[in-house]
Amino acid sequence: MGQELFNPFDVSGWPQNAEWINSSTLLNRLNFMNAVATGNKRLFDYDLVKVMESANVNTIEKAVDYLLGLLLDGEVSEEERNIYIAYLDGLVGSATSGNVLTKDRLASLVYLVMSSPDYQLA
Fold it and tell me: Where along the chain do its domains lie?
């Protein structure tokens, strides 16, 4: 993300918040988020479905709440929460088979949350 661990460019440290979001860094940030969301085996080795199962998450609402709690400390408005629920519900409604919380559906929700302004400025 442009930061060398424990080596800021001067003694004041790294800039905060929006100073890290610009046309040069945003694409790298989005690519990184995609790798995290999809559980890219080269960079991140985890199974999002198993994570949800181990946390006893088995509904759309629980999945949204769990991920918002994990990624945003649950600090979103009810309106935003409902948007994420409607998004995931729309993905589930577009397919008729199997588990509603598949890897692809959960990964797309993680990516959506991580690419939100709330996450970027957290």
Answer: 21-120
